[in-house]
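As described in the Methods, two query proteins were run sequentially through the folding procedure within a single session, without resetting any intermediate state between them. The first query and its resulting structure tokens are shown here.
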Amino acid sequence: MTRKMVKIMKKEIVRSDAAPAAAGPYSQAVKFSNIIYLSGQIPLDPENNEIVSGGIEIQTERVLLNIKLILAAAGSCLDNVLKTTIYLSDMDDFVIVNKVYEKYFGDNSPARSTIEAARLPKGAKIEIDVVAFAG
């Protein structure tokens, strides 16, 4: 009779001091096994937790930078992103968001959904959540 070792998996809360703190009762990200689930990120400046000033291009840059920082804290990177969901307050911003998004993901684009939302937290124009793998 042989015994098999069973690895007990547990979730790990991911925090990055370089990125904005969660704006509510949730974690910046949760890691389970080798999968990382990032909560939706809005364009908050980590210095003051306020929405960055400027239009959709600047807000998209800030969101993607925050995502990059949280992924790094989880031991991952943008190349490991499997799926994103983008929430826009105005679907007319779709083309501009795509241009910024492409700078971050290039030819290694993850699967993606884009949804127009009536309102986003703190009046943000964009929110993105991510699923990635660690490694």
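Immediately afterward, the second query was submitted; its sequence and tokens are:
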Amino acid sequence: MVMKKIFLLLLLTLSTQVSALEVAGMPVPENLQLDKYSLQLNGAGIRTKFLIKIYIAALYLGDKMHTGEEVLASTGAKRMSFILLHDMSGKQVVDGINEAILPNNSEDEMKALESRLYEFEKMFTAVPEIKKGEIVNLDYIPGLGTRVTLNGVERGHIEGLDFSRALLKIWVGTKPVKAELKQHVLGNE
């Protein structure tokens, strides 16, 4: 009887351990701590362009959400994480973001973001190269704004929930960078 209880306890313990999800051979954590906020992986997928795998995108939220509207309406902490699948310059990162942010935001929204986008761009153009396997995190932290980190080193932060939403529209907006990637980060595939 004692052995049976130990076996059941061991089985229960093993079943509650969280392992990392693997995408394109890279581990993607299923849970993380962002300052005082506990976040869970909402979904992850691979961004491709011309059949080249560019990065793994992983969206983390406090609670699972399956529509872009829910994610964009959320005022809670969130993380959009990128694991690069090939080397890129900081300028290439900025060019990709600029290309994808325009179709998802109105002219008025872009005008309101102009100076903050410039500050954001400077965080990346100062980096000569981001290597395969390196991680970029865009963290929205209530009261702070969007904190940008590269391999755990803070590059700076940009104020405003509107800035975070403008960036998130790249992946979960009405004109996402890739429709298939949107479904993956929303946990729908």
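Strands lie at 21-23, 26-28, 31-34, 37-49, 52-61, 78-84, 135-141, 145-150, 153-158. We note this only descriptively and draw no conclusion about the first query from it.
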